Amino acid sequence: MPKPVVQVGDDPDPSEWLYISEEMRRIDQSKPYDAKKACWVPDEAEGYVQGEIKATKGDLVTVALPGGETKDFKKDLVGQVNPPKYEKCEDMSNLTYLNDASVLHNLRERYRARLIYTYSGLFCIVINPYKRWPLYTLRVAKMYRGKRRNEIPPHLFAVSDGAYVNMLTNKENQSMLITGESGAGKTENTKKVIAYFATIGASKKDTEGKPSLEDQVVQTNPVLEAYGNAKTVRNDNSSRFGKFIRIHFTASGKLAGADIETYLLEKARVISQQTLERSYHIFYQMMSGSVKGLKEMCFLSNDIYDYVNVSQGKITIPNVDDGEECMLTDVAFDVLGFTQDEKDNIYKITAAVMHMGGMKFKQKGREEQAEADGTDEGDRVAKLLGCVTDDLYKNLLKPRIKVGTEYVTKGQNKDQVSNAVGALCKGIFDRLFKWLVKKCNETLDTKQKRAQFIGVLDIAGFEIFDFNGFEQLCINFTNEKLQQFFNHHMFVLEQEEYKKEGINWAFIDFGMDLLACVELIEKPMGILSILEEESMFPKATDQTFVEKLITNHLGKSAPFMKPRPPKPGIPAGHFAIGHYAGVVSYNITGWLEKNKDPLNDTVVEQFKKGENSLLVEIFSEAAAAPAEGAAPAAKGGRGKKGAAFATVSSAYKEQLNNLMTTLQSTSPHFVRCIIPNELKQTGLIDAKLVMHQLTCNGVLEGIRICRKGFPNRMMYPDFKQRYLILAPAAMQAEQDSKKAAEKCFEAIQLDPDSYRIGHTKVFFRAGVLGQMEDFRDQRLSKIMSWMQSWCRGYLSRTEFKKMQSQRTALEVVQRNLRKYLKLRTWAWWKLWQKVKPLLNVSRVEDQIAKLEEKAQKATEAFEKEEKLRKELEALNSKLLAEKTALLDSLSGEKGALQEYQEKAAKLTAQKNDLENQLRDTQERLAQEEDARNQLFQTKKKLEQEISGQKKDAEDLELQIQKIEQDKASKDHQIRNLNDEIAHQDELINKLNKEKKMQGEVNQKTAEELQAAEDKVNHLNKVKAKLEQTLDELEDSLEREKKLRGDVEKAKRKVEGDLKITQEAVSDLERNKKELEQTIMRKDKEISALSAKLEDEQNLVGKLQKQIKELQGRIEELEEEVEAERQARAKAEKQRADLARELEELGERLEEAGGATSAQIELNKKREAELAKLRRDLEEANIQHEGTLANLRKKHNDAVAEMAEQVDQLNKLKTKAEHDRANMYNELNNTRSACDQLAREKSEA
């Protein structure tokens, strides 16, 4: 777990993981490169490989591949290669050629060189190294503290420090968005960011014996990881939830607290895991037994396989000690201020979730009812949760449901009970996790004064799997919104710089590129809206949901598509959405159930009354949460639906909207985490996997947007220095660097659309800087050729002169040598050789005397010079010391001067901005003053018109009285219907007295009541639709009011016109008032009729419920008749047996030859008994048939009466709908008239 970095010994040198070595740079720069022939082409294995262009024919390019093979490619598949100087570029937005191949190549080469961080414009891309390198030590933190981004290599700390400095400098909240797929390193990078902020924001004052705030901030990680992280196929410590952590700072930059917000915990993992995965870490930590007494308190055995919920996949993680992790979690609880009782209750509830997986049930005979199959695990669950075992099983097997104002019990079969237990496990764990987050927030909520915060968002990246469900839609929708936010933010900054530089540029909102997809998901009648509507409808199914989606969006919304054929063995998708990262097919199986997220309310009520105080708290908070969430809606107007029926999608959408609102109020910084390969090997890049992530993470989308603008730019002095050789005469003649740049472009005849001239910089489109480099290289090539030829000529001329001098000298030597050979035999020459030395003796003495005199003078001069030298050396040393001191002072003054100059520039800019704002404010103030005077005059005119409206109000009162009379007649009809209901109630009471098996009838009644409740839910949905209609009418009224404002504005503009025009405007205003009153009156009528319609529909529901109960009674009587028929059949069988016995006796008598008188009497007696049985059976049949006929007659009469009442109600409903349609027509006519008046007014 990360901690505020503490220096222990010397940290290792991180240079080899941050900087490119000189040797590596030399090798990269010396690579052969031909800008016209080098190219990138697609490759199945490597993604892209570098080839050499051999020929071009139309749209086909022939390319020689590295293996010697030659292939043809389409021209749009061939990408240009960047010059060697961009090899392992730290910021890919500076690349000359921005294409997918160049991005992949740059990332691959940097990763192979163990450089895991790379910038791409606003992005910081980090590739998981799968190793722990010394990149996050205190030494590295100090390297990046207070440094600018361009002064140091790319690093997560550079982004973090940039956010911290911006917060302190601009007094603005910051955010860091860290995204990526599972296993990419999001969680680890998030922890490093938090540790960095905890280190640089730590306070020096520590309280003895009390954990510091920075320690508490960091210690939230073990708790959240224990309850929110799990092993997956791709990641041993995968966060199964998203989180947004706000780290609050004081005005001086010290920590002032923190809070955490979580999103979409994967609840399904609590009760089911795949073969190679496991559930949340806390279950296995508790089973380790490292915390003394924990297993005994929680009734845990030593075998993890005793607990089905957590043993369906792997139970251990390589190189991870669950016991040690459990101790860290327990210590983290203590640091965060959890009491011992709270810790015990947390462990007990967690263990109860494990034990609940072992609760067994079986079917009870042939009944639709389950029963407990042993209560051992149930006893443990009840003890841990502080409730009664019998009540727990009773509430699971026969939960009580509310129908109207009454509660009835409802039997559950085995599958229903098992599903209910699983839902409780997920619900308990989810609420416990949210409570832990709340508790952490309370601990981190210090009372220090907060100035700004830095938010760190750790959320799953875009997901495209073979099977995509509800969770993937939520995650992808979140990333779609974040990408829209990034696109908008990225080019807002970019285009603001264009504006500041004075470039002619039409503003483009690139966030609109994704608007169609966002609206498809979140707008009214979008996917989430339809999902919520179907979740409210009791008889909705997955099939009806799909049909409604297809009806509303297929062919009407561009991003909504038909799904692609699935892979073998994968369920087919029901629809597809075209996201920015690609087309994703979604399977909607089980979405309605996931969205409703039902729980057994009876068991929940039992938990609220239990002895486990934490369990009571988490379920009480869960019940109160929807009401709190509904408060903002109530503030803004009418709510769309009650808080009691909040869905998962609506809660998530509200969370996401709040998150986006928060992010939009901050200055964002983006970090994109990448998985290099699935094998977890360092240095290996899987091209297809990386390109997929770059697409999903929006890196390639950002590059696409970059290419539409001017991604490359240079300061004018730098441009002049580098490209002076392209037009030296013209550029040297200009002292202004900006004009020199313009002269350069004129000289090389560069396309004006490919560059822009700003105030301080020159901007280039993508690839143009490469053309400039080509021009420069060509010019350098010519200059080098000329220089080489001049050097060769100079060297040749020098050699030629040397050879000429040697020739002349050789001729002189030869001539002198020939003369000497002639003279050496001449006698006079020999005499001269002997006499010459004797002639110089006297001259030598005179020369010696002169030399001695010179030597004495030179000695005296030397002594004077030596003395003067020593004096000058002393003076020089003194002057050097003074110079050094002055240089030190000068350097300090230069730094201060630079700071003062920067401050002065900022203050000047601020002063100019404030002066501009002051001027704008003064202008607006003058305009507002004029508008106020005009409004005052208009008010006087309107007050005069109010008196004319009173008569209209009297007419409206008469209409209201008429409506009240209609209401009275409707009330009379309702009273008649109530009398009929009372009559039916009496009939029902009589039938109820005849019931024999009350328990079975109650069960059937409960099912019927459930259907009635579904009907009520349906009516609630209709009510919600009517309320929505009312909201739309209110919106229409707002539009009418807005139109009124426009008309009044037009009226003010034409005040100087003729008096006739003023009178016409007054008439129009009066007509508009009348129309608004009419709209309000119609709105009230619609509300009244809606209420009446709802009451009538409730009455229909009650009558239909009574019909169903009567039908149930008839079915019971028919069952009784069937029983009587079976009894009759049995009697008939007995009669047949007696007849058969009688025949046997007759045969015996005949065989005996003579019957005794006693036997004859016995036969007569049996015949008489048989006749009596026949008569009794016939009488019973006649009686039962009569009773059945009476019941059928009563049933038919009741059904007929109910049908008449239903027909009457349907007529009333039809009439109400007809009235409503007429109202809408009147409203449309009114709007048309208003629009016509507005047009006439505007034309006037």
Could you write a compact summary of the structure shown?
The chain is of the alpha+beta class and 1244 residues long.
List keywords for this structure.
1244 residues; alpha+beta; Alpha-Beta Plaits; seven-stranded mixed sheet; 24 strands; disordered N terminus; P-loop_NTPase; muscle protein; nucleotide-binding; microfilament motor activity
Describe this structure in words.
The protein is of the alpha+beta class and 1244 residues long. It has a domain at 712-815: 2-Layer Sandwich (Alpha-Beta Plaits), CATH 3.30.70.1590. Helix content is 63%, strand content 10%. The chain contains 32 helices and 24 strands. The strands form seven sheets. Strands 6-7-21-8-17-11-12 form a seven-stranded mixed sheet, sandwiched between helices. A five-stranded antiparallel sheet has the order 4-3-2-1-5. Strands 18-19-20 form a three-stranded antiparallel sheet. A hairpin with a 7-residue loop joins strand 9 and strand 10. Helix 6 (213-228) packs antiparallel against helix 13 and helix 10 (340-356) packs antiparallel against helix 13.
